[in-house]
Amino acid sequence: MRVLITVYPALAHLYPVVPYAWALQTAGHDVRVASHAGFADTIASTGLVPVALGDAGSPEPRLREDARQPPAPEQVIAYAQAMGLSPEEVEHWIAFYQWNLNPASDYVRADLPDAPDLVEFARAWRPDLVLWDLVFPAGAVAARACGAAHGRLLGSNLDYFAYSQERLAEHRTAVRAAGLATDPLADLVRPLADRYGVSVDDELLIGQFTIDPLPKGLSLPTATVKVPVRKIPYTGAAAFPRWLHRRPQGRPRIALSLGESTRRYVAGDWGRTPKLLDALAGLDVEVVATLSPLQLAAVDTLPDNVRAIEWVPLTQLLPTCDALVHHGGMGTFSSAVAAGIPQLVCDTEDSLLFRPATAAPAAADSGTYRAGREFGVQNEDTAEEAAGWLHPEKNLLATPCASYVTEQGAGVRLDHQKQSVEELRAQLSRVLTEPAFRTGASTVRDIWQSMPSPNEIVPTLEELAARRS
Length: 469
Description:
Helix 6 (114-125) runs parallel beside helix 7 (138-146). This protein is an alpha/beta fold. The N and C termini lie close together (11 Å). It folds into 2 domains: 2-231 and 452-467, Rossmann fold (3-Layer(aba) Sandwich); 242-353 and 392-449, 3-Layer(aba) Sandwich (Rossmann fold), CATH 3.40.50.2000. The strands form 3 sheets. The chain has a 7-stranded parallel sheet, sandwiched between helices. A 6-stranded parallel sheet has the order 10-9-8-11-12-15, sandwiched between helices. The protein has a two-stranded antiparallel ribbon with strand order 13-14. The model is unreliable at 359-368 and 375-387 (pLDDT under 50). It is built from 19 helices and 15 strands. This is DUF1205 domain-containing protein. It comes from Micromonospora zingiberis.
């Protein structure tokens, strides 16, 4: 069969789906991966065939001056109040409405060429199955327009979309009475759907099924049809460094990785990096830190026991390590799970994922969230742009990731806001010296290995596609 996969043009969205695409290809299926034209070479580097959408010479929609900005904090909270959400539900709602709808809006716009190019390609190529990135809902429109079966790819995300759609459906009367739109996601998709005569319904917005790589206890409860799968870590291909051929002798090795995306939006890493390095400097360990110049900007002197390298595949590094300190991203989490090592997850105690800003930040590295900002591409600040939401100095998924790791006994939570250097160092020492953390990490790895591999779900995908033919 022919399979069309859509991905948002970022490594954090592409890498999680590469093992699924390979599994389908090696089973004899014809696979194409569609994304913005400027991302085509990156897709090709994974051994997959790209479909270039839009113009490679034009800015990606998320970096355009007219990109959709986050809604006002008052509007986000108005929804939460109308629905009577609990504090935990408010967190999930903010993640959906304030964070995830923005990237979803980038590639569903009918007034830009990317989404129409996708639909026209689907109509011409006639795929049997479309697998679409959670924040690339144009994939569902393309599937419906050409009559293909379609399902969503969670990738490295929680299913905030289905979870929030279900909350909206439960409280539709109260939301309408509050004068709020009852289905913001449908409103976002409708202009493109209308252009191609596609009806907007729950199946279009949530897919016929969802490929879910999250272990039980980490995923959100939803009524969607799920295809569970083991998340196989993939972090790109690179020559295996000679210094990684052997594990260090006489002392543990710790990896420090704080994510690929934050470094592009927050210069200085909120002061977290220097504090973590100070804590690590006081231990008899070897540290391999995958940090960019922006993340190291506030570090005056690198400790003697730290090797800083901007990029090395975690699939190569982590099997040589005794523990991982990281930002709470699901891709990094999964790499540690597969390696069977304990994790120290950076998480803060902020009550909300994104705090309303009472005034414009004083510096460009304050971590204000908005579209159109990326260091080295477009990072100009204005007072108007800076107003709105402040980033809480953590990854979007840090709290659920840290909670899962600690509940399984596979690691600890690190809070650079609340904990002193000495307290951080004590946590690091605990994870390295107490055998229970290694046992917990082995348990998490066993849970991961019990899930179906990408190869094992191919027959399920074939069956789901056949039902729609």
